[in-house]
Amino acid sequence: MPILEQVNPVSDSDLTNIQKTSSINDTKSHNIASHSGVSLRPDQVPIRFDETWFSYNSEPVVKDINFSITPGEFAAILGPNGSGKTTLMKLALGLLKPESGQVLLFGEPAESFTDWYRVGYVPQRTQATESRFPASVREIVNFGSYSGFRPFGFLDRGRSTRVDEAMEMAGIEQLADHRVSDLSVGQQQRMLIARSLVRRPDLLVMDEPVAGVDAAGEEQFHSMVRRLNRDLGITIVMVSHDIGAVIQEATTCACINRDIVFHGPVHQLDAQALSGLYGFPVDVLMHDPEHTHR
Amino acid sequence: MAEIFQYEFMNRAIIASVLVGATAPAFGVFFVLRRLSLIADTLSHVALAGVAIALLTKTFAPVIALFATTAAAVSIEELRMRRLLPGDAALAVFLYGALAVAVVLISIADGFNSTLFSYLFGSVLTVTQTDLWWMATLAAVIVLFMLMFGSELAQITFDPDLARVNGVRVHLLNLGLAVLTGATITVSMRVVGVLLVGALIVIPVLISLRITSGLNRTVITSSVIGVVVAVVGMVIAYYADIAPGGSVVLTAISLLVVAEMGAVVLRMSRRNSRCSVLNDHAHAHESHAHGADGDGDQDLHSHR
Prior knowledge:
- The structure holds two protein chains of two kinds.
- By secondary structure, chain A is α/β, with parallel strands linked by helices.
- Helices cover 30% and strands 22% of the residues of chain A.
- Chain A contains ten helices and twelve strands.
- A six-stranded mixed beta sheet of chain A has the order 8-9-10-5-11-12, with helices on both faces.
- The longest helix of chain A has 16 residues.
- Chain B is mainly α.
- Chain B has a single domain, classed as ABC transporter involved in vitamin B12 uptake, BtuC.
- In chain B, helix 2 crosses helix 3, helix 2 packs antiparallel against helix 9 and helix 3 runs antiparallel to helix 4.
- Chain B is globular and about 85 Å long.
């Protein structure tokens, strides 16, 4: 598929380096350096939180967050309700402005970032899918091909092959002409992923994408995201409260409860970190260490 | 029927109805889907306050109304975007505030009530050639705006956060949409009046949402329905000798009722046909179950 050719593949050795270094990337230097000497320029680092603080009505919900998401990572952001996970993602996408500190998106402050074609976003819910929104799935997926204001864009009525490819990858090609409001929650999430894939992003940010999806749909969804990360090298950041699923799929993990409780490779996530996160004792059972840490 | 076109004022009224009917609902799609239908009503009351100011200061009413709606549209959008007030609360404050201003000004200066009434309920029969040129210019601007920013407006309507992460300049476009809506309302109030202009923005959209799908098709269908109800309402008003504004809106509401009833009938007939298919299927199973004492060939046939 042509879409495969567009994405810079991340080799296994790079991934290993990234995983090794993810917990030590919380430095204030401009370059993100690894133990093995792999140095990433700031514009190569998808997301970097640097002493980030944010409050709603003087109540801090994000406190002094410092960590980076490096290319090729499948990072899970874990935390209980109200822990600031969604706020953190909104800061990362420039939808909120940090009170102090900064958030860098590919080396640029998120609020003034302009290379949006590099970023895909799948929110938990969209306001339109809950109403009788008249658009077809194809129309919504086609939003992903937006590349900035084009005064005479309306004259271009060509059918984009990228849109067809993205729908095929997300497994919704048969729903192309369905009305958005007729889709199930799982199908809507797949549509939003397809919309993000049209632009062939380097980074895909997802906020609790499987909330409200049944178990079978959840498994399908996770296997699709796994493919995007492994086969296409897309950096994935997924906010989740489902520890089990995340431990199976993600390579790194950041546990947030307003401040950062743990950040590192998933296999280092232990009961102590999770107990600290949720405020009560949590046991971690690793069924298959080979599978859990890729 | 030809009689209606013999009068110059009636021809102008029909042209004005076509222009307003086509442009007002096109904006309505974006407001109805974002559950901001009240914005039309709010801006029309602001326009009324503008008219009251103009009549008191003896200035040109449409220009003052345009300034008032533009200022209000920008203020409402800023309040909403900066989250200083929830969207519906900001609209309510402006709606009642503008109405209060109008009422106070009316009480201060007696004597212009008849003119004010023409803005309240519309005075399409007094539309001049100059008015028509203004309307046509605004309609051209609106069509251009819709064509150039259609994709951006659709994305914002679907989800403003997603649109922003897609690189759409959400705030600027929201401002543009609000200002042009204010301008549309200022122009439309000549046709249906301040009190009913909101209906012309919203009701054709509701009909369109019932009978079509696809965002672009919904915008176009809304405009077509807007033109149809405006012209039909105007013709009815002429022959029945009733107020044109009320006639247009009642025509739109009648069409909405027909569309909703049609949808209910369609749903019921689909359900019935589904039930009959299920019954046939159940009957086939029953026949199959009793196949031992019946005709085996028939059982097979019923399952095919």
